[in-house]
Amino acid sequence: MKSVMLPLRIVSVANLREHWSKRAKRAKAHRAAAIAVPQHPLPCVVTIIRIAPRMLDDDNMQSGAKALRDGIADRLGVKDNDPRVQWLYRQERGDPKQYLVHVIIEPA
Question: Which residues contact 41 (CB under 8 A, 6 or more apart)?
Answer without folding.
Answer: 107
